[in-house]
Predict the 3D structure of the following.
Amino acid sequence: MGNHARLFQKYGSLIKYETMGKQNYLTNDPAIATVAFQESAFFSKLITPEHPLAGIKDNRALFIGDTETESWRQAHKFIPPSMSPKAVRHYTPLMEATVKESFRVFDKLDEQDEAWNVYQYMLKLASQTVFEFALGYNAHHFDSPDSPLNELVVLIAQSLSLNKKVASRGSWYAALGAVPFTAANELRNIQKRLWAILNQAIDKAPKGDSEEDLPLQTAALGASCVVDYLKRATDDHGNKLPRDLVIPNMLPISGAGFTTTSALMSWLIYSLCVYEGNQDRMLQELVDAGVNENTKWTPELSDQLTFLGKFVKETQRLHNPSFQPGRTAKVDCIVPGGYKLSSGAVVICALHAIHNNPKIWSSPDRFNPDRWGTEEVAGRPKNSYMPFATGPRSCIGFNFALGEVKVLLPELVYRYEFSKEGEEAVTYDPEFQLIRPMNFYVRARKRTVWPEPSPGAERIAQEYGPGEKKPP
């Protein structure tokens, strides 16, 4: 990413690079990104051999398939309602239950005075949440501090790492899928195993209150999980998502869900520890809002925690996990800035570079949650901030992802005080599909005292009433 910044500074807002015979374009200009992200006569999400997702392309799946296919149109009709704001409300108790289940492990690590790798445990937490949401089963990641990662998590993570390796080596290497001992061959074998496990998980997914079909727009409210939703959601004409599209879509729903959130949660904890004063501010906001161990979490409560919202935004601006969404030119065209692109050119909208572009952001390297809500930020160019991309192919799970971190993070901050362990610089994995901190360790000490509420603070959090059912 540092190389990208230097290249943009030297050559301008659109740069062309070649790696092992593979050519792509990178941009840090939100005007170019806006054009590229709009499905139009000029650009589309067409996953060619040059595209970053080429190694895991599947035209039956919503996230990793081409736009102009009947499969995408069907999937795009049925899947987004399962992650709508109404659905997020329905699954908020699940998020609360999952993070509280993790407490016994983090409490144990504190008792042992042990530091732990943040990404590894956030991978456990995020995948446990997403698996409950998507597949309806418990990954048992928090039975003990040493509980192993579920095999499905391991395989999905390996497939993303292998895809990055295969894609970075060019189409000639991707064609070696049948050759033993190559990353391309290993990726193919892992994908076969993934399919087998997903088939079993889908067949065993729990049912909701009944097995009756449900109207598409409200089906998520009566479903036990996404699989149950996809089996029962019915449109106005009595149609459902075909079974042969359910399985291919559950892989990116599960995989993209926890890989993105685990990295984001890791960077959020990093920001708490490294950028002084922010952890105290967040804790004070929680106390002022009346949050305690008996708080009933709702989307309304999360949305009213203004500093939490600013903190999440600033972390995504400076440390966004996703950094290379690509779009393909359908015809020869000229993009903003006067750059000419040939048909088939893949433009990668470098989100980190856009979010840190000094022509757009003042002091872009400075972590400053208070920049949000200012006139300066409100007046920035369109799509200067787009952590989940934008346009028709933007992330369909952004409602769930934001709803999830805005429950998990405050629950953890209210219960624990986080501090970075060691002075070693934190590094990220350049051969992974997302940006994740690899060597970031913390101590999480269970709190015994909390600050007093600020004068005039208004309590907005609600507690569970006597006899009211709490998340399991």
